[in-house]
Design a protein that fits this description.
The protein is mostly beta strands. It has a single domain, classed as SH3 type barrels, CATH 2.30.30. 0% of the residues lie in helices and 45% in strands. The protein is built from no helices and five strands. Strands 4-3-2-1-5 form a five-stranded antiparallel beta sheet, with no helix packed on it. The chain starts with 5 loop residues before the first strand and ends with a strand. The relative contact order is 0.35.
Length: 66
């Protein structure tokens, strides 16, 4: 996954914070950080304008940026 890829949320733990971002939402990756444990976190601009952070295990690429 990289900045500009279109992604879909495939798995998420229940969130106590609005907008209760659930499985099935789609968006575009706008930022990325690599954590010390080797996993990555991605900032995603969702289709409704929300900006959320997800780990790499929660996302699936649906269209790669070229």
């Amino acid at each position: 996954m990289k900045i500009g890829d279109a992604v879909k949320v495939t798995d998420i733990h229940p969130s106590p914070f609005p907008p209760y971002n659930g499985t099935g939402r789609t968006g575009i990756i706008i930022d990325e950080i690599e954590l010390n444990d080797g996993f990555s976190e991605y900032e995603v601009l969702m289709e409704d304008g929300d900006v959320m952070w997800y780990n790499d295990l929660m996302l699936k690429v649906i269209s790669e940026s070229r």
